[in-house]
Amino acid sequence: MRKTKFTPFRENRHPKNMRLRNVFRWILYGLLILLAFIFSTSGDYTKPLLMIPIALCISSVSKEAVAGGVGIVCGFCMDVTTGSLPGYHAILLFLLCMLTALLYDRLMQRRYFNMLLFTAVVTFLVTGADFVFRYAMWGYDHMAIIYTHYMLPCLLYTCISTIVIYPVFHCIHRFLLPQQRRTIEKTIRTLEESEE
């Protein structure tokens, strides 16, 4: 009689099961993007830019093309909610999400601090570009007040929202992601083996 080894849900590699988990994962991504879009259209101007951490969390486990597509979708949603020129945030998030996918594929590991730091940097770049192209370039009065009362709180709220958003995506990726990403140790080991 053959003994079967118990394998948890993550270890089961049946193709039909993997496709089902992948479809369910993308449905959850879509629902989270929709909830963030609804949240972004309500309230005043000082609120977190939830599309940024969502796009970065999805891009951290995706290939470059998929990450770029997610960046475009989330960017267009941000364009609608912020009232900016259509495609402005889409281009920014397209480039930043592709950079995120490349960095996580080649250099960084999926860790809480890495995502918090990367979200802070990306949010600073996006809010800084918004401030320069929407206010500073046109010479509005009281630009310092606009930055300190609207842009800076958006940046801080977005970084704080990452504290809540990242664990949600970590659970989704832990249970529904079909493949494991390479770690730095595995990458270094393969590089050392190729040099010999």
Please tell me about this protein's structure.
With 196 residues, the chain is an all-alpha fold. Helix content is 73%, strand content 0%. The protein contains seven helices and no strands. The chain is globular, with a radius of gyration of 19 Å. The chain starts with 14 loop residues before the first helix and ends with a helix.
Question: Could you list some keywords that capture this structure?
Answer:
196 residues; mainly alpha; 73% helix; 0% strand
Describe the secondary-structure layout.
Elements: H1 15-40, H2 51-59, H3 64-82, H4 88-106, H5 112-136, H6 143-176, H7 184-195
Order of helices and strands: HHHHHHH
Number of helices: 7
Apparent shape: globular
What is the radius of gyration computed over CA atoms, rounded to a whole number of angstroms? 19 Å
Annotation, overall tally of beta strands: 0
Low-confidence spans: 6-12
Provide the helix percentage: over 70%
Task: Give the amount of beta strand, in percent.
Answer: under 5%
Give a short account of the largest sheet: none
Mean of all residue-level pLDDT scores: 86
Structural class: mainly alpha
Distance between the first and last residues' Cα: 44 Å
Question: Outline of this structure?
Answer:
This protein is mainly α.
